[in-house]
Amino acid sequence: MTYVFPPAPQATIAVEGTDERLPVRRIFCVGRNYAAHAREMGKDPDRDPPFFFTKPADAVVDSGETVAYPPETENFHYEAELVVAIGTGGKNITEADSLSHVWGYAVGNDLTRRDLQLKAREQGRPWDWGKAFDRSAVIGPVFPVAKVGHPSSGAITLTVNGDVKQDADLNELIWSVPEIISILSHSIALAPGDLIMTGTPAGVGPLVSGDVCVVSIEGLGSIETPIGPKED
């Protein structure tokens, strides 16, 4: 096969404790999956069917890398999240079988241009400009299930310059990981390398140039993101 120009490099994320990299196929994100966060966003946290948005695979950023303050926003936010890495694909997966499709788990930060997201929401438009921009998915090393099992509880916290901004527990997820996987797979055939960012707790807020943002999940360690100068 001959390409008209070289194809883009494969997006990857680190694997904890090895030099291996996990290839990223797609990134699915669950919206408003903690009740307190739904309330702070002005929405009812009732257990309605979950909704999803996506980020491009090449939005991934390793822990420790500097992320420039992105263009076209004056309200750039952090969002601490548990990330699920799919290792075995499938469709119409039952909730009981969902966890057998998971390769591992990681700590994530769903960076968001909040002003653009809210404007799109008010206008009934897609969230892409607020969520799916360059370098908007900070994802730490993936821990294989064989090492960490399937975390369903444990502290998830985020600090900015050492000050705690988000502090919750994974057991507060409205929709659990098995439920999310099953629901997604009934709409889209999942494949190895798909990542699922499972939602953020309450306490989201702004980042500015010079900040250092740290997200931690019990049993999965921490990721760190320095925020650089604003892009032109």
UniProtKB/TrEMBL annotation:
SUPFAM superfamilies: FAH. This is Fumarylpyruvate hydrolase. Residues 27-227 form the Fumarylacetoacetase-like C-terminal domain. It comes from the Bacteria. The keyword Acetylation does not apply. GO terms for molecular function: acetylpyruvate hydrolase activity; metal ion binding. Gene3D superfamilies: Fumarylacetoacetase-like, C-terminal domain. Keywords: Hydrolase, Metal-binding, Pyruvate.
